[in-house]
């Protein structure tokens, strides 16, 4: 399901970038900026603009200090002090400071520089580069620290409101899946406040504490975030025993678990799933060549464990295919 497999450093940067109107500031060399900036710009539904200046270089995302060889000898505190000026803009409500693995060795104190600037209320400082961690841990941990800063407890809980968690925008087709989930949940009388990790605004992030439940899509991407919401905001996370909603059986189990937790009627959703499955079965059965071609063929999966379980069951039971290789990416 992932477009790429990467480390926790990239996960951390892209988690910060999932806040549509937030600013991710990278203290590090330009090479650490380029791919992450490209992924953010290409995948998220956000207007691309051009910003001039020493830290942007004609791009609007991930201003960077561009650490050079001399900085590793003499330090780069002056560059940190200059990039902090970005926070003084009225257009910046929330920023996340992340150090590259190499820049973290220099020893520049970002915390001291931000405190001296008086901009602490606008800044989330990530204390680790997460380079030695997997992508999901960097993503989950960073999003959790951002939520700790931006979200406040709310007494105005609405039983019909939920948040989606565990759906990072790096997953292929996430936007179509998110639209489908919102439509299905609406049939149950549930409204999605925001989807954390797949394009939230700061206002949506703040409003997320008014939801009564979080709903996990791929739990590996929201373990720490789920714990924060339950312990600090009183919002439990619904996790399906069948794993991620992959394949009709797992999808039914996912929505059934949501209905069980929220007390909503799941029958309209089940009718919609039945219609869709009936269409899919008709297409497959009417194409005998495809059905025979797939039979006893092998498949390989490299994914998160909560995705592997329902996907392998679906491929094996529905298409009579055989697993050749299964690898847990976590």
List the keywords.
single chain; 3 domains; 3-stranded parallel β-sheet; Rossmann fold; 9 strands; alpha/beta; 13 helices; 330 residues; globular
Write the layout of secondary structure elements.
Layout: H1 8-17, E1 23-27, H2 31-43, H3 69-74, H4 77-83, E2 95-99, H5 110-117, E3 123-125, H6 135-150, E4 158-165, H7 174-187, E5 191-195, H8 202-207, E6 211-216, H9 223-233, E7 237-238, H10 248-262, H11 267-285, H12 288-294, E8 298-303, H13 305-319, E9 322-328
Parallel strand pairs: 1-2, 2-3, 4-5, 4-6, 6-7, 8-9
What does this structure look like?
This protein is α/β, with parallel strands linked by helices. The chain folds into 3 domains: 8-133, Rossmann fold, CATH 3.40.50; 158-272, 3-Layer(aba) Sandwich (Rossmann fold); 287-328, no CATH class. The protein has 13 helices and 9 strands. The two termini are 13 Å apart. The mean pLDDT is 88.
What is the rounded Rg?
A: 22 Å
- End-to-end span in angstroms? 13 Å
Give the tally of β-strands.
9
Total number of helical segments?
A: 13
Shape: globular
Indicate the CATH topology of the largest domain.
Rossmann fold
What is the name of the CATH architecture of the largest domain? 3-Layer(aba) Sandwich
SSE pattern: HEHHHEHEHEHEHEHEHHHEHE
Structural class: alpha/beta
Give the strand order of the largest sheet, numbering strands 1, 2, ... along the chain.
Answer: 5-4-6-7
Catalogue the unreliable spans: none
């Amino acid at each position: 399901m992932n477009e790429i497999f990467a480390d926790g450093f990239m996960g951390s940067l892209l988690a910060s970038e999932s806040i549509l109107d937030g600013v991710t500031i990278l203290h590090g060399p330009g090479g650490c900026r380029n791919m992450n900036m490209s992924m953010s710009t290409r995948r998220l539904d956000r207007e691309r603009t051009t910003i001039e200046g020493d830290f942007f270089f004609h791009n609007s995302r991930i201003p960077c200090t561009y650490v050079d060889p001399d900085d590793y000898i003499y330090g780069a505190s002056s560059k940190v002090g200059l990039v902090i000026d970005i926070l003084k803009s009225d257009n910046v409500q929330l920023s996340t400071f992340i150090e590259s693995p190499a820049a973290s060795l220099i020893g520049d104190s970002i915390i001291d520089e931000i405190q001296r600037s008086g901009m602490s209320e606008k800044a989330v400082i990530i204390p680790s580069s997460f380079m030695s961690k997997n992508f999901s841990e960097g993503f989950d941990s960073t999003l959790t620290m951002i939520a700790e800063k931006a979200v406040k407890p709310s007494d105005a809980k609405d039983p019909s409101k939920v948040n989606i968690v565990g759906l990072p925008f790096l997953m292929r087709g996430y936007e179509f899946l998110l639209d489908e989930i919102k439509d299905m949940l609406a049939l149950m009388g549930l409204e999605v406040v925001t989807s954390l990790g797949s394009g939230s605004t700061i206002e949506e992030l703040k409003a997320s504490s008014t939801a009564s439940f979080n709903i996990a899509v791929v739990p590996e991407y929201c373990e720490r975030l789920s714990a924060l919401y339950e312990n600090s905001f009183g919002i439990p996370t619904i996790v399906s025993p069948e794993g991620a909603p992959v394949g009709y059986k797992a999808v039914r189990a996912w929505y059934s678990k949501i209905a069980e937790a929220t007390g909503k009627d799941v029958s309209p959703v089940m009718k919609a799933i039945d219609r869709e499955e009936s269409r899919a079965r008709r297409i497959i059965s009417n194409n005998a060549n495809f059905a025979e071609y797939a039979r006893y063929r092998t498949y390989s999966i490299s994914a998160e464990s909560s995705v592997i379980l329902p996907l392998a069951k679906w491929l094996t039971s529905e298409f009579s295919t055989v697993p050749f290789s299964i690898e847990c990416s976590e």
